[in-house]
Amino acid sequence: MDQAEQLRNIVKTQNRQRHLARVITVTSGKGGVGKSNVAVNLALQFSRFGKRVVIFDADFGLANIEVMLGIRPAYNLSDVIFRGKKVSEVISRGPENIGFVSGGSGIRELARLDADQIRMLVNIMYELDNIADVVIIDTGAGISDSVINMVLSSSEVLLVATPEPASITDAYALLKTLKWNKEYREDAIKIKMVGNRTQTFEEGRELYIKLNTVVKKFLNMEMEYLGTVPFDRFLTKAVMRQQPVSLAFPNSPSARAIHDIASVLNRDGAGRTTARESGMAGVFTKMFRTRQK
Ligand SMILES: Nc1ncnc2c1ncn2[C@@H]1O[C@H](COP(=O)(O)OP(=O)(O)OP(=O)(O)O)[C@@H](O)[C@H]1O
Ligand SMILES: [Mg+2]
């Protein structure tokens, strides 16, 4: 049995036995457009809908989310892979009991794991699947291999874009890179656009129509529209206080907009069967598929 087959077998047996989390991957073409804020506030909203939520910070660059939540996790993913820590030890608890896992340097190290470490990592992800209903992955921005691989391995992707021209062209560039990747399967990924820092709700929809039109025409791809988060000084204030805006200012325009987006996602997710979904274990198995071939 080769390594790929072994991994598929682990996945098959575990899928029959275990609970799988719904994985929502948040990404963008350009940096600084609001991914981490969307991820954290969506997590809070899902938690308020009674879901067990874990945020997975896959952005190895800056410890964005930790700062936003005002928490300081003692360990990250690489402590599980290389230093024998338990999964429970790398999950920190943020406000309203949302879980948080820092990929830390572990994300960079994914590229050079050996077969045993990969198997261990997939098993770790099964543990995460068992304790979470929803896992929200915050990726780094842009078109690096690690972001592309993470996105290509996810079945539900939120693409955050602002009306800034550079954000629109970079979002297009990201989609183009996905489309041309040999691992891209149209029916395996749903891309849902979220506008951010728009002046009005109409501006969010216009942004979607603009981007979706060129994406359809030149890439023959389709995106859904989830909604938009308006530019909101309360969000900036909340960031300064190291609190998610949904916690610090729950009635602010941005918190309300994210609540509405979470409601749409929650409705989409209702009645979903786990059969065709893969959970975090599936995402990580897929991430290593190119190396298994
Ligand atoms: N809706 C909004 N209204 C006002 N300011 C916003 C809004 N969304 C984001 N910002 C501002 O943009 C900054 C960047 O947001 P955030 O950190 O969520 O972006 P990001 O895409 O995760 O960035 P990176 O690519 O660096 O990880 C925030 O600190 C905040 O000041
Ligand atoms: Mg970020």
State the total count of DSSP E strands: 8
Strand % is 15-25%
Mean of the pLDDT scores? Answer: 89
- Our measurement of the CA-to-CA distance between the termini, rounded to an integer number of angstroms, reads 13 Å
Give the number of domains. 1
CATH topology: Rossmann fold
Q: What is the helix content?
A: 40-55%
CATH architecture: 3-Layer(aba) Sandwich
Class from helix and strand fractions: alpha/beta
Largest sheet: 8 strands, mixed
Quick one: CATH class?
Answer: Alpha Beta
* Low-confidence segments: none
User: What radius of gyration results from the CA coordinates?
Assistant: 18 Å
Outline of the structure:
It is built from 15 helices and 8 strands.
Written account of the structure:
By secondary structure, the chain is α/β, with parallel strands linked by helices. The chain is built from 15 helices and eight strands. Helix 2 (35-48) packs across helix 13 (253-269). The structure holds adenosine-5'-triphosphate and magnesium ion (MG).
